[in-house]
Design a protein that fits this description.
- The protein is an alpha/beta fold.
- The protein has two domains: 3-98 and 210-254, Rossmann fold (3-Layer(aba) Sandwich); 102-207, Rossmann fold (3-Layer(aba) Sandwich), CATH 3.40.50.
- Helix content is 46%, strand content 16%.
- Strands 4-3-1-2-9 form a five-stranded parallel beta sheet, with helices on both faces. It has a four-stranded parallel beta sheet with strand order 6-5-7-8.
- Helix 9 links the parallel strand 7 (181-184) and strand 8 (205-208).
- The longest helix is centred in the first third of the chain and has 16 residues, at 49-64.
- The model has no long low-confidence stretch (mean pLDDT 95).
- The site of D-glutamic acid (DGL) has 17 residues, from helix 3.
- Residues 12-14, 16, 42-45, 75-77, 119, 122, 150, 186-188 line the site of D-glutamic acid.
């Protein structure tokens, strides 16, 4: 197959990366995508640094064998520990990651408070600390590790009393301090946006980085002259280390692409 028509690899620790995939499909419907989730090893966000790095590299090596023209790490956690290594390994194709969308949140909430919900690893990683230092003067940035939240999405529980109770406990103390924007800094979280909104009420803006990541991918593919010339709609192929999850993958993609 001609290089420009090969699939784009999209990786996450589980099904969360589909929130990024859906934006890429919207923006570049004629591209072929190859999504892989490693749910058997999820969550990544509570594992040690080197373990996450190895899991990410092993998954991408597996995907690369199949012939891909670009790599998207649709996982804030894996991006924060492995993106440099991946860029140094796959030098002839674009490698795009995702990080908590602090910039748009700070723009909207200058001199206000920005709450960043993410996995424990993401909020402790050096990459995030550098990002936070960059914007700390413009708004008050409050990182909030959310251990246990991605598990609701992995289980397909996008609403319900248990999730509400979890979110209430997690968010209420922060909301009482007054928050202007909330960054959804884990790709699983956009799928529980509605449940988060129920707790926050209409006040704070909820921001995630998936649209920006899709645009960045398009820009980088163009730079490498790798945008497809296919005239018809592309395909999405799913692969999961827990094959039973593929049904949930399809549900999440369709629910959000076609019914929102
Ligand atoms: N979806 C992932 C992220 O964006 C991580 C979830 C996890 O494995 O802990 O950070």
């Amino acid at each position: 197959m001609e290089r420009r028509n090969q699939p784009i690899a999209v990786f996450d620790s589980g099904v969360g990366g589909i929130s990024v995939l859906r934006e890429m499909v919207r923006l570049m419907p004629n591209e072929n995508f190859y999504f892989r989730g490693d749910s058997i090893h999820a969550p990544f966000g509570t594992r040690p640094f080197h373990e996450i790095q190895k899991l990410t590299l092993d998954n991408i090596a597996h995907m690369a064998q199949k012939g891909i023209k670009g790599i998207v790490i649709a996982c804030n956690t894996a991006t924060s520990v492995a993106i440099e290594l991946l860029r140094n390994t796959y030098i002839d194709i674009p490698v795009v990651g995702i990080e908590p969308a602090l910039k748009p949140a700070v723009m909207e909430s200058r001199h206000g408070k920005v709450l960043v919900m993410a996995t424990p690893m993401t909020v402790h990683a050096e990459k995030f600390c550098r990002l936070m230092a960059q914007y700390q003067g413009e708004a008050e940035i409050i990182p909030l590790g959310c251990p246990g939240l991605m598990e609701f999405v992995e289980a397909g529980s996008l609403e319900g009393p248990r999730l509400q109770e979890y979110l209430k406990k997690l968010l209420t103390p922060k909301l009482l301090e007054g928050v202007n924007s909330i960054v959804l800094g884990c790709t699983h979280y956009p799928f529980v946006r509605g449940a988060i909104r129920e707790i926050t009420g209409p006040g704070p803006h909820l921001i995630d980085g998936s649209e920006g990541t899709a645009r960045e991918l398009q820009r980088r593919l163009d730079e490498f002259d790798l945008l497809t010339d296919r005239k018809e709609r592309g395909t999405v192929v799913f692969e999961e280390s827990i094959p039973d999850k593929i049904k949930l993958c399809r549900f999440l993609l369709e629910r959000d692409v076609w019914a929102e």
